[in-house]
Design a protein that fits this description.
34% helix; nucleotide-binding; single chain; NADP; FMN; alpha/beta; Rossmann fold; NQO
């Protein structure tokens, strides 16, 4: 005579065996993409990347957009040509889950080099290659003028791509520190370079940059985990 257990199994089917192995989640890929003429944004980009690396399961890549200035003109202007980050190509942006863009301000807008790069992403726009990916922006200015405008005007391009824009708000205490001149906005991290470019990012500005990187990485990882 069949046991009660066998009878129940025939009626409802045998329960599936519980897996003894954990499902491996794919890495969340974060790209820090920047343009830096004098090295200020390069320094900020590395701190952004350091912050993103604090999040488990996140793979961080730092790249820069190609320089469009003539090499001799760049040298004459005192530009920094010895940057370690490799150059990015527009088509590779679709490979990442989040992209954090860094650009100095040019009259309240992104630098022409970043604009030229993003103007080559028409193919990605046409096929929705960046839709739903996380984006954020950081910047540098000479005297502080235009930092928020530069970030917000860059958002416009990212919105056309359907990206999910992540600001930092006032979620880190360094943004309330007004004891000294410095960058930092609720829109994104920033640094003040000085009119002659002699001022370098300080500890407070770099802390905000790391916070931005960590914040974006957390959002991207959460979205990827939830499908």
């Amino acid at each position: 005579m069949a046991s009660l257990t066998e009878a129940i199994a025939r009626l409802f089917g045998r329960p599936k065996a519980r897996s003894t192995t954990q499902e491996v989640q794919p890495m969340t890929k974060v790209l820090v993409l920047y343009y830096s003429m004098y090295g200020h944004i390069e320094t900020m980009a590395n701190s952004i990347a350091d912050g993103a690396r604090q999040v488990d399961g996140v793979e961080v890549t730092v790249k820069r957009v190609p320089e469009t200035m003539d090499p001799e003109a760049l040298k004459a202007a005192g530009g920094k040509s010895d940057q370690q980050a490799p150059e990015a190509s527009p088509k590779e942006l679709a490979d990442y889950d989040a992209i954090i863009f860094g650009t100095p301000t040019r009259f309240g807008n992104m630098a022409g080099q970043m604009r030229t790069f993003l103007d080559q992403t028409g193919g990605l726009w046409a096929n929705g290659g960046l839709v739903g990916k996380v984006a954020s922006v950081f910047t540098s200015t000479g005297t502080g003028g235009g930092e928020e405008m530069t970030i917000a005007s860059t958002w416009t391009t990212l919105a056309h791509h359907g990206m999910i824009i992540v600001p930092i708000g006032y979620a880190t205490p360094e943004l309330f520190d007004i004891s000294q001149v410095g960058g930092g906005t609720p829109y994104g991290a920033s640094t003040i370079a000085g009119g002659d470019g002699s001022r370098q990012p300080d500890d407070r500005e770099l802390t905000i940059a790391r916070f931005q990187g960590e914040t974006v990485a957390k959002v991207a990882a959460r979205l990827k985990a939830n499908g």
